[in-house]
Design goal:
- The protein is mostly helical.
- It has a domain at 50-174.
- 80% of the residues lie in helices and 0% in strands.
- It contains four helices and no strands.
- The longest helix has 47 residues, at 128-174.
Length: 179
C-alpha cells in the first residue's frame, strides 16, 4: 500500500506541477525548470504505478501457483483454486488498462511539449495540452480505482491462502505429520 500511495502522490504532484507551468514555449530557466520538474515527477509516478501493478501481478502468479501445487499435494477442494483464478483474472484487465493509460498519457505529454519535434495538433478539436491534461486526470482516477481493486483482491486472496493453510494444517495433524 505504501508503494501505491507513493505512486499516486507522484502522479497527483505531476498534475499539480503541470498545471503550474506558465507558457512552456518560453525559454526562461524558471519555466523550463517547471517543465523538467513536471516531466521527472511524471516519470517517477509512472514507474512507481507500473511497479505496483507488476508486484500485484507477481503476487497473484505466485499464490496461484502455490495454491495449485498445494492442491496437487493434498486432497483439497477445487474451490480455493477457482476463487484465486477469478480474483486474478478480475484484476488483470484493469491493470492492463491502467498501464496503457499511463503510457498513452506520457506519450501525449511528450507530444504536447512545444519543444517536441512531433508538434501535435491536438485531438477532437482540443489542443494537445488539453488532451494530455484530460488523459492525465483520467489516468490518476483510474490508477486510484485500480489500486483499490487490487487491494480488495489481495485481501480476499489472503483469506483464500489462510483457508488453504488451515486445511493443510488439519490434514497434516490428522496424518500425524509436523506442522
Amino acid at each position: 500500500m505504501t508503494l501505491a500511495s507513493l505512486g499516486g502522490l507522484l502522479l497527483v504532484a505531476s498534475v499539480v506541477l503541470g498545471l503550474n507551468i506558465d507558457d512552456p514555449r518560453v525559454a526562461t530557466a524558471q519555466v523550463q525548470g517547471g517543465v523538467a520538474a513536471h516531466f521527472l515527477t511524471a516519470v517517477g509516478g509512472l514507474v512507481f504505478a507500473a511497479l505496483v501493478h507488476a508486484i500485484v501481478l507477481t503476487y497473484f502468479m505466485g499464490t496461484s501457483r502455490w495454491i495449485e501445487e498445494t492442491g496437487n499435494s493434498y486432497p483439497l477442494s477445487p474451490r480455493p483454486r477457482e476463487e484465486n483464478r477469478k480474483l486474478k483474472y478480475r484484476v488483470m484487465p484493469a491493470m492492463a488498462a491502467c498501464l496503457l493509460l499511463l503510457i498513452v498519457t506520457g506519450a501525449t505529454g511528450a507530444a504536447a511539449d512545444p519543444a517536441s519535434p512531433y508538434g501535435a495538433q491536438g485531438l477532437f478539436g482540443m489542443p494537445s495540452s488539453t488532451v494530455h491534461f484530460v488523459l492525465a486526470m483520467t489516468t490518476v482516477c483510474v490508477n486510484l480505482a485500480v489500486n483499490y481493486l487490487e487491494y480488495i483482491a489481495i485481501y480476499e486472496n489472503g483469506r483464500i491462502v489462510e483457508e488453504v493453510l488451515a486445511e493443510v494444517r488439519r490434514i497434516r495433524l490428522e496424518r500425524g505429520l509436523p506442522v
